[in-house]
Write a structure and sequence with these properties.
Elements (H helix, E strand, L loop, with lengths): L1 H43 L3 H10 L3 H22 L4 H25 L7 H21 L3 H23 L14 H13 L8 H16 L2 H10 L1 E2 L1 H27 L3 H6 L4 H28 L5 E2 L6
Antiparallel strand pairs: 1-2
Helix pairs in contact: 4-6, 4-10, 5-6, 5-8, 7-8, 8-12, 10-12
Length: 313
């Protein structure tokens, strides 16, 4: 009897241990399943910026325009509150532009590629900078002259790298924007509408030409991004820096007009020229506004490569 009892008790203990082990395994699997579902739920949950972006994208065009204007007004009010000398905004715009070019220099020297960059945009930039530098020398030499000089030198270096050292990676087939589409209209417009100051007529026409050309110089770069649909990080950083610089420059002019209660427009001259200056600043800001929106959305979404939907730029 003792032997039988011993033989029957051992399997019973083993069965209990097996059942206990299966129970622990089941609990661990259950906990793992809940953790996996929790992680999927967190991944599936949208961040606040994504929720706002989705809501804004679903709005009618009129609402989108209203939201864009309202956001610009809020940004202007904020800048007016924190920056007392609004001339600093223009210097900040030049500094941000220089920062963007620094990103390009890093891309060209470290990455050894110019893929995604528009040579034509760089050439247009060099053209309006050269004209503006000439006007600055003969009309008003100041700190902006030095900033423009440094920007022009670096832009010429970028052009040299794209044309010669990194020509094999240049996307010439994607950079298919016709430069004369913007140069000729800007030249004609500068003959028709230019400053009415006491300077020589050629200098006034050159001044107007560089203002108009700057407003549209980024169009070839936008065409390249439209053709590729995928914008690598350094190019995206550069174009975003251009957008910020254009906004700061536009804010400088608008706040100056508000502070002087319109007297700045009179100082610029009479006729259509003062209005064209403001219009050029606004145009070059809104040209890049759509791209900047998707750039910020991509950054908050943790995406390193920016993918643009159809019809963005």
């Amino acid at each position: 009897m003792v032997t039988v009892h011993t033989l029957t008790s051992k399997p019973t203990n083993q069965h209990r241990e097996c059942r206990a082990q299966r129970h622990r395994d089941t609990e661990e699997e259950s906990e793992s399943e809940w953790e996996r579902r929790g992680e999927e739920s967190m991944k599936g949950g949208k961040r606040p910026i994504q929720v706002v972006a989705t809501w804004a994208r679903r709005q009618p065009p009129k609402i989108k325009v209203f939201l864009a204007v309202a956001s610009a007004i809020v940004a202007l009010v904020f800048l007016r509150m924190i920056i007392h000398d609004h001339d600093n905004l223009f210097v900040a715009a030049e500094a941000v532009h220089a920062l963007g070019i620094s990103v390009l220099i890093y891309k060209l020297t470290k990455e050894k590629t110019c893929a995604g960059l528009s040579l034509k945009s760089q050439e247009l930039t060099a053209l309006f900078l050269a004209v503006r530098l000439y006007c600055s020398f003969v009309m008003e030499f100041d700190i902006h002259t030095l900033l423009d000089s440094a920007t022009l030198v670096t832009t010429l270096w970028v052009i040299y790298m794209i044309r010669f050292n990194l020509k094999s990676s240049y996307m010439e087939d994607k950079d298919n924007f016709k430069i004369y589409y913007v140069v000729i209209p800007c030249a004609v417009l500068s003959f028709l509408i230019h400053p009415t100051t006491q300077h020589h007529i050629l200098n006034r026409i050159f001044w107007a030409f560089c203002v108009y050309l700057e407003a549209v110089s980024v169009l070839p770069q936008l065409r390249v991004m439209q053709n590729t649909k995928i914008v690598e990080p350094f190019t995206a950083h550069y174009v975003f820096a251009l957008g910020v610089a254009r906004f700061l420059s536009c804010a400088h002019w608008l706040l100056q007009v508000l502070d002087t209660r319109g007297r700045l427009l009179t100082a610029l001259g009479y006729g259509l020229w003062p209005s064209m200056v403001l219009l050029s600043e606004i145009v070059q800001t809104f040209i890049l506004a759509d791209f900047c929106y998707y750039y910020v959305k991509s950054i908050f979404g943790g995406q390193l490569v920016l993918r643009l939907p159809s019809g963005v730029v």
